[in-house]
Amino acid sequence: METPKNPTSIEHRIREGLSRLATAMRSDDWARAKAAGINPTQYAILELLEGRPHGLGVKEIALWLGVSQPTATDSILALERKSLVVKQTAVEDRRAAHVLLTEPGRTALAAGEAVHGTAEIATEPLSSAERTGLLMTLVTMIRQLQETGAIPIQRMCVSCRHFRPNVHPGEANLHHCAFIDAAFGPSELRIDCRDHEIADPAFRAATWDAFIEG
């Protein structure tokens, strides 16, 4: 029996905490999808395609969402019927097709994004510093998953070839984005940047070392 003097492992308790948050986030997913008139998997596909002007292949979509290819295919077909996505022949392979977001798809996304979710409620009690610390923790955890191959490389600042960490020491905006040539602070780190370009493994490793050392 677990007691304060004999608790379960901290890893177990962290997993329990994340599970509770995931339950609330799934409820958010349903609410946003309902506002958009689709189901959560279909809404997740629209989110994934946003900011990707060349679209993604069906296999890529399945990989990113962690679902089977038949599940991804069925969801894409449903979105096509609603004119929320469209398929185009891939330039690099005429036998393949990429799925692209349409203007009605963007409208559906906007309807979902207008829903106030539990993430906002959960972070309300946190101070600005605590929110920034939480963001940093999430970035660290996501990076660990992507670098071990558990998930695809995410469009985060720390995996982007344009990211220059800690190049403005002593300043509030200590990081720099070479893409837009602008400084920014820790609270502005991106989890999913539309202008992201994946850095090679060596650059990612060196960038991360410089990032955490700062």
Structure, explained:
- The chain folds into two domains: 10-113, Arc Repressor Mutant, subunit A (Orthogonal Bundle), CATH 1.10.10.10; 126-213, no CATH class.
- It is 50% helix and 8% strand.
- It is built from eight helices and five strands.
- The longest helix is centred in the N-terminal third of the chain and has 27 residues, at 10-36.
- The termini are far apart.
Regions with little confidence, pLDDT below 50 for 5+ residues: none
Beta-strand share of residues: 5-15%
In spatial order, strands of the major sheet run 3-4-5
Count helical runs: 8
Structural class: mainly alpha
What Rg is obtained from the alpha carbons, in whole angstroms? Answer: 20 Å
Number of separate domains: 2
Shape: globular
Mean pLDDT: 93
Full CATH superfamily name of the largest domain: Winged helix-like DNA-binding domain superfamily/Winged helix DNA-binding domain
Largest sheet composition: 3 strands, antiparallel
Using the coordinates shown, work out and report the CATH topology of the largest domain.
Arc Repressor Mutant, subunit A
Distance between the termini: 43 Å
